[in-house]
Write a structure and sequence with these properties.
about 325 residues, alpha/beta, 2 domains, five-stranded parallel sheet, elongated, binds zinc ion
């Protein structure tokens, strides 16, 4: 089995940076992995951790062996949120039972100072349990409470020997400047649609065609693709499209307004995907009617453009309900 780093797809810059650091024994003590969700940040973090704790990696190797006991224990097992290796520690809001981190209530708001104290500060002065290296991986580092972030600053700047931090965030610019300035940023890009389609077909057991059409909507994120590929999400999308199609040709505007109001509850992210799917449906309609009904094809093309414009508005942070209301009014006027 290869080391986890070598299984990362379509992130050559990030992987090269990490491999070089590992091979030259210059792994930074605090990284900030910056990029969208579902593009491999977490895989890279565990790959780095694996290389640092591997028992068989020789000087100059840029990769974990992937086979030794430490390599196996450095990665979370399928379905588990954290690995069993005592030197690979994951921090995440809500990951731990409150009692184990000295709290009475669950961490609903943020990654608390209690978690940072128990998992990081209490151990910072000690060498790694198994001698090689100690790695703290912070999922969604933007969840750090202000107190937790401040408590981390000193350790982040001068961690003990062979101690490393990897902060993961899809909104890295929202982290405190004091945190950002103490970390080395490694950027992760959105994945190409082809890579998403390929990974999705392999993981979710769908046909290549289904995977390709979902990949087009996933914005380069495997997390989004897997969510879109989920049968329930896909049923909700199909329902939105058929109701929206009916609302466009209905007598009154009520059905469209009702969908716009529901969209507010569904949320912006999901609504953007719904409207993108609607746009795709108009696009498909334009293609199928083009050969025998020019007028119908023109109408479908115009509606396709209107739906896409609504997606752009949502992306530019327009109100979900207002954007959908305006879209239905325009769609019906064609
Ligand atoms: Zn190993």
């Amino acid at each position: 089995m290869p080391g986890l780093l070598s299984t990362l797809r379509a992130q050559p810059t990030a992987v090269d940076t990490l491999r070089r650091a590992i091979a030259t024994d210059r792994v930074h003590h605090a990284y900030l992995f910056d990029g969208p969700d579902g593009v491999g940040k977490e895989r890279a973090a565990f790959g780095l951790a694996q290389a640092l704790v591997c028992e068989r990696r020789l000087a100059g190797d840029s990769e974990a062996c992937g086979e030794c006991r430490s390599c196996a224990r450095a990665l979370p097992r399928a379905g588990e949120a954290r690995p069993v290796h005592p030197d690979v520690v994951v921090l995440e809001r809500g990951l731990y039972d409150p009692a184990t981190i000295g709290r009475r209530s669950p961490e609903t708001q943020d990654l608390s100072i209690d978690q940072v104290r128990t998992l990081v500060l209490a151990r910072a002065a000690f060498p790694p349990y198994e001698g090689r290296a100690k790695i703290f991986i912070l999922r969604r580092a933007e969840d750090l409470s202000q107190a937790a972030a401040n408590a981390l600053l000193k350790t982040l700047e001068e961690p003990g020997p062979r101690t490393h931090f990897v902060l993961l965030s899809s909104v890295a610019d929202s982290l405190l400047p004091t945190i950002r300035s103490r970390t080395q940023r490694v950027r992760f890009a959105a994945l190409p649609d082809g890579v998403v389609a390929e990974l999705l077909a392999g993981q979710a057991g769908m046909t290549a065609e289904q995977a390709a059409s979902i990949a087009l909507l996933a914005g380069g994120s495997m997390a989004t693709a897997l969510h879109l590929g989920d049968p329930e999400a896909s049923a909700r999308r199909d329902e939105f499209v058929s109701r929206a199609m009916a609302a466009v040709t209905a007598r009154g505007l009520e059905a469209g307004l009702a969908l716009a109001e529901e969209a507010k509850k569904v949320g912006k992210e999901a609504s953007m995907v719904h409207v993108e799917t609607l746009a795709a449906a108009f696009g498909a309609l334009a293609r199928t009617t083009a050969s025998n009904d020019d007028r119908a094809a023109d109408v479908a093309v115009t509606r396709y453009a209107i739906a896409l414009a609504a997606v752009r508005q949502l992306d530019a942070n327009a109100s979900t309900q207002l954007a959908l209301e305006a879209m239905f009014i325009r769609l019906r006027a064609v």
